Structures are given as structure tokens and as C-alpha cells.
């Protein structure tokens, strides 16, 4: 194994725990060398628990560290632009949590700078690289459902204010069910079916305010600034038609459903917010409509967040293409933003960005080392 790629983490909030664990315990070709958070205590706790060599008071100090190759941006969605743009200005490659940015204007500026500087820019979600969705991709590519003709995705829940320790941002700029959970579903769909050419959408907010009932902000009222009930239709480049429904307004016993329909069968995709299964297939030959579970064909079925970061690092080491580049995160963001744009205009909205699927995953006999 060659030299490790050095990572600097900005933002040590709720999602950081699994990144810290996987970077330090699973992925052998990346190394966390520095952490930084506006709440210094969080960074201190991470440094102590995971033996991180350096702690910086500001992100600018972290960006100035010549040892750091990739900045891992784990801040809140509306902060992604500010952190990413400054990291790029400092000459660092960036891997960001989803979404790429909170608006297309921010995304355009980020992408332009990365292109001008020749820097790698990519990001979450990386669940599509896990065993579940990669198995689904192989089944589709190998013709097990025939020609794909449609897809449907549902993410239904009542929101975060009853359980999340800091839920306000889910209802503010950069938040909402589509911007929060949509990246998982749409990233999975474009990886399975290819790029989207146009969309239609209807969006609304059922409640003007939300009252937090979780600690430590119990009783606080949050003004809803974003759509919390989003329905969308996607026209894929391959001719398939997809639908997606995301909401924070509805009581429902479960929240995840993703199905791909083909001329010869239907594929039931696992929760795209996870890396594993189950993967289920219904073929037209099944007279009794028996749905069979398909064994997973790839590694990384457990919670493997940082898998995309490790893939970017491998691409940086070898010169191959990364599987989670800004072409993907930008395309997904444009699709998500266009649903509300369509709803306001009452019209079909063409998708300007073009997307080509990256290479499928390859199995490596050593867990934690990528191809």
C-alpha cells in the first residue's frame, strides 16, 4: 500500500461520527490528520476519541495546512458553499456532504472554480457505491428486468423536530425533504437509469411553522422557509419515466421505497440511505408473483460512509476517474431544484447538465482498499 491521502474534516456534527469511525478504522488509504468545528468542544472530543493529530480553531487555518490533500466538508447544507469555495481557493480538493450547494447559483460558482484550478470536487451520498445499489445496477445492466421503462421513489415522514437535537435547519434555506433526502433517491436513480432530460414538479408546505419537541430546543418554533411536500416527475435520457415523492408533513409507518420497472420484471431497490440490502426481484415468468431476494454481489453492505471519500482519494492516487464527481452531485442538485422551479412556473423544466454514469464498483479482496 502506498502513501495515504491526508484528510482535513470541517464540521464535527451529528453525521461526523460514522465518518470518523470509518476513516480511522476501515479505509486504509485515507488518513484523518485534522479537525475543525465552530464549537471547539466537538472537535476536541473527536480529536481525543480518534487520535487526530491536529485541531484547528478556524477552517482557514486548516486550509493552510500543506499536509492536507482533501477537505471533508461536513457542515450544514447552507454552509456547504462557504466552506467548499474557500477550500478550493486554498488549492484543496473537496469532498462534501450532500447537497453540493443550497442553490444552482452557488453550485455554478463552486464548479467553475474547481474546473479553473483543476481540483477534484465530489460528494455524498456515497450509498450508491454500497453492495445493495451496486447489485441492483448489475441486475439492470445484465438485463434481468429487460429494458427499464419506469421508476418510483417515496420518502414519507413527519419531520425531524420530534427527535433531532438541532432540527431547525431542515426547514430553512438548503433544507426540506427533497434537499435532505432527495439526494439519496435521485443519486440512486441516475446511477441505475442514467441522466435526466427534464422534470415536472408540484411543491408546497403544509405547515407554516414547526414546534420543536426534542431536546435541547424543546418548545422553540421554527418558521418553514422551504417546500415540505414535493412531488416530481423525471424524464430520463433512456426513455424511462420516474416519479418521486418526499415529505416532512405526513404520518406514515415507513419512509423508504424505491422501485425500478422493466419490460421483463420489477426490481425492489433497498433503502438508498443505506449501503446494504435487501435486493428483491420479480420476473414476468413468476406465475404466482413470487418476489425473490437476490444475494448481494459486492462489498460494503454495512454503514460505509466515507466510501465515496476513499474512492476520490484512490482516484487522486491513481489518476482514474472518481465515481462521485461534481458532474453527479451537480446533476442531482439541478434535478432537485427544478421541481420547485417547475411548480412555480407550471411547466416542464429542461435539465441543462449532462450526466454519464461512472464505472461500477469492483470487488477487492481486501476490505477498505479500493480498486
The gist of it:
The chain has 371 residues and is of the alpha/beta class. It has 9 helices and 17 strands.
Protein architecture, described:
The protein is of the alpha/beta class and 371 residues long. The protein has two domains: 5-123, Rossmann fold (3-Layer(aba) Sandwich); 131-294, Dihydrodipicolinate Reductase, domain 2. It has helices spanning 16-25, 40-50, 59-63, 80-89, 104-117, 131-141, 177-193, 307-318, 326-345, and strands at residues 5-10, 30-36, 54-56, 70-73, 93-96, 121-123, 148-156, 196-204, 209-211, 221-223, 229-236, 241-247, 256-262, 265-269, 279-283, 292-294, 349-350. Helix 5 (104-117) links the parallel strand 5 (93-96) and strand 6 (121-123). Helix 4 (80-89) packs parallel to helix 5 (104-117) and helix 7 packs across helix 9. The mean pLDDT is 97.
Tell me the β content: 15-25%
The CATH architecture category of the largest domain equals 2-Layer Sandwich
Average pLDDT confidence is 97
The CATH topology of the largest domain comes to Dihydrodipicolinate Reductase, domain 2
| Regions with little confidence, pLDDT below 50 for 5+ residues | none
Number of domains: 2
CATH homologous superfamily title of the largest domain: Dihydrodipicolinate Reductase, domain 2
Q: What is the SS-derived class?
A: alpha/beta
Q: Which sheet architecture does the biggest sheet show?
A: 9 strands, mixed
Gyration radius from CA atoms, angstroms: 20 Å
Alpha plus pi helix count: 9
Helix/strand order: EHEHEHEHEHEHEHEEEEEEEEEHHE
Amino acid at each position: 500500500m502506498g502513501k495515504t491521502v491526508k484528510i482535513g474534516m470541517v464540521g464535527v456534527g451529528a453525521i461526523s461520527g460514522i465518518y470518523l469511525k470509518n476513516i480511522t478504522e476501515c479505509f486504509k488509504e485515507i488518513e484523518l490528520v485534522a479537525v475543525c468545528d465552530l464549537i471547539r468542544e466537538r472537535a476536541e472530543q473527536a480529536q481525543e476519541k480518534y487520535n487526530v493529530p491536529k485541531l484547528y480553531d478556524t477552517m482557514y487555518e486548516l486550509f493552510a495546512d500543506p499536509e492536507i490533500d482533501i477537505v471533508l466538508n461536513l457542515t450544514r447544507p447552507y454552509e456547504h458553499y462557504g466552506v467548499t469555495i474557500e477550500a478550493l481557493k486554498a488549492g484543496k480538493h473537496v469532498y462534501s456532504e450532500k447537497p453540493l450547494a443550497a442553490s444552482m447559483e452557488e453550485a455554478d460558482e463552486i464548479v467553475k472554480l474547481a474546473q479553473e484550478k483543476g481540483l477534484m470536487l465530489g460528494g455524498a451520498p456515497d450509498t450508491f457505491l454500497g453492495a445493495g445499489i451496486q447489485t441492483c445496477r448489475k441486475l439492470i445492466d445484465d438485463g434481468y428486468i429487460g429494458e427499464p421503462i419506469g421508476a418510483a421513489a417515496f420518502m414519507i415522514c413527519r419531520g425531524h423536530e420530534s427527535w433531532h437535537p438541532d432540527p431547525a435547519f431542515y426547514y430553512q434555506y438548503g433544507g426540506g425533504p427533497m434537499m435532505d433526502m432527495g439526494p439519496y433517491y435521485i443519486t440512486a436513480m441516475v446511477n441505475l437509469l442514467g441522466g435526466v432530460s427534464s422534470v415536472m414538479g408540484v411543491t408546497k408546505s403544509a405547515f407554516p411553522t414547526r414546534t420543536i419537541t426534542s431536546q435541547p430546543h424543546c418548545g422553540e418554533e421554527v418558521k418553514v422557509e422551504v417546500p415540505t411536500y414535493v412531488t416530481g416527475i423525471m424524464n430520463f435520457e433512456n426513455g424511462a419515466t420516474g416519479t418521486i415523492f418526499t415529505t416532512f408533513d405526513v404520518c406514515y409507518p415507513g419512509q423508504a421505497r424505491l422501485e425500478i420497472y422493466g419490460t421483463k420484471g420489477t426490481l425492489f431497490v433497498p433503502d438508498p440511505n443505506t449501503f446494504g440490502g435487501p435486493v428483491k426481484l420479480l420476473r414476468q415468468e413468476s406465475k404466482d408473483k413470487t418476489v425473490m431476494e437476490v444475494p448481494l454481489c459486492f462489498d460494503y453492505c454495512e454503514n460505509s460512509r466515507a466510501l465515496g471519500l476513499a474512492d476520490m482519494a484512490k482516484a487522486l492516487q491513481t489518476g482514474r476517474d472518481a465515481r462521485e464527481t461534481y458532474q453527479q452531485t451537480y446533476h442531482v442538485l439541478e434535478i432537485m431544484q427544478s421541481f420547485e422551479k417547475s411548480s412555480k412556473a407550471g411547466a416542464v423544466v429542461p435539465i441543462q447538465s449532462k450526466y454519464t454514469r461512472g464505472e461500477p464498483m469492483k470487488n477487492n479482496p481486501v476490505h477498505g482498499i479500493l480498486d
